[in-house]
Each structure stands twice: as structure tokens, then as C-alpha cells.
Amino acid sequence: MRHNNATNPLGRKSAHRKSMLSNMASSLILHKRIKTTTAKAKALRVFIEPILTKSKEDSTHARRFAFSSLKDKKAVHELFKEVTPKIADRPGGYTRILKLGTRSGDAAEICFIELVDFNTAMLTTKESETAKTTRRSRRGSSKKKNAGADEQETEKNAKAKTAKPKIAKEKKEEPGMEANQAKPEGE
């Protein structure tokens, strides 16, 4: 039974687990996305989200709290400089876990863990989905296809009528050519 066992020890001693999560959190902040096992990603999410929430208030206490957890000056600087302004209006859920399948060596479940506001590919797809407001139906699609074909035919006919007829290019004769043709061969 696992009564009151909230943390996943990940098969490590506490010092090793804390340092591993600290390193992974620093890497996540610096690179915005890391590839790891699903168990580590879930433990990392529990570790990093309170740090991100605390970083919304840019104070000395918040910076010291972040440094005590991350133990990396570059990561703390990146956190307060780039990450915090983007997550300022988000009420929580700063990370996303995307499962990739199993690793071939030991069949461990592999995933990406990323900061939600920094995945540009997903942000652009969401914007394009919200911009698209029309709805397609199966019933009207054949009529639209026929109408589109009719429009193309009428456009072709209109272009053919308005096109200028091709004028045959006349042979340009040089002034000396007429004189040569006029002379009989015998002379």
C-alpha cells in the first residue's frame, strides 16, 4: 500500500533525485523542451510548476527561491527575463507532456515535456483553427464542385473571346534582297 507516498522516488536516493530534477528543470527553462521518460516528466512537472508560479512576482525573494531550487544562474536569469513575461497571465498548467512511445532499449515510455507558451508550432495551428470559421458539409460539396467547374469554363470562354488574334509575322525583307530576285539568272 502506498498510503501518503506522494513523491515518486524514481529509483534514486533523495539527494540524487533532487539534483536530477534541478538539472532537468534548468534544461527545460533554457531549452524550452526536453526529451525524457514519462515518469521523470511527471515528477519534473510537480517540481517546476511552483517555481514558475513564484517567478511571476519579480522580487529578490522569488529570485532566491528559484536559485535555491535550480542552482543555475543562467537558468534563473532566463526564467525571469524570457519565461515569466509569457506566462504572466496564465493561471497554471505551464508545462505540456507529449508522449512519443517506448524506447527500444528498455521499453521505457518516452515523452517531450515543454513549456506551453513556447511551442510555436502548436500556437500557429491553434491560431489557424480559430481563424477558420466556415463549416463544410457533405451535401453541398457536389454542387460547389459543379459550380466551380462551370465558372472555370466560363472564364476560359471569356478569355478566348477577349484574346487578340495572332497576327502572322510578315517576313522582313532587306533592301538588297529585292534587287537580287529581280535579276534573271542568265545575265
Descriptive tags:
3 strands, 7 helices, 50s Ribosomal Protein L17, Chain: A, 3-stranded antiparallel beta sheet, 11% strand, 187 residues
What would the CATH topology of the domain at 14-121 be?
Answer: 50s Ribosomal Protein L17, Chain: A
N-to-C series of helices and strands: HEHHHEEHHH
The CATH homologous superfamily name of the domain at 14-121 equals Ribosomal protein L17
Instruction: Count every helix, treating DSSP H or I runs of 4 or more residues as helices.
Output: 7
Main sheet characteristics? 3 strands, antiparallel
| CATH architecture name of the domain at 14-121 | Alpha-Beta Complex
| Strand order, sheet with most strands | 1-3-2
Quote the beta fraction.
5-15%
Helix content: 55-70%
Q: Find the count of extended strands (DSSP E, 2+ residues).
A: 3
Structure, explained:
The protein is mainly alpha-helical and 187 residues long. It has a domain at 14-121: 50s Ribosomal Protein L17, Chain: A. The chain has seven helices and three strands, in the order αβαααββααα. It has helices at residues 14-31, 38-54, 60-70, 73-87, 120-131, 141-162, 175-182; strands at residues 33-37, 95-102, 109-115. Strands 1-3-2 form a three-stranded antiparallel β-sheet. Strand 2 and strand 3 (109-115) form a beta hairpin. Helix 1 crosses helix 4 (73-87) and helix 3 (60-70) packs across helix 4 (73-87). The model has no long low-confidence stretch (mean pLDDT 83).
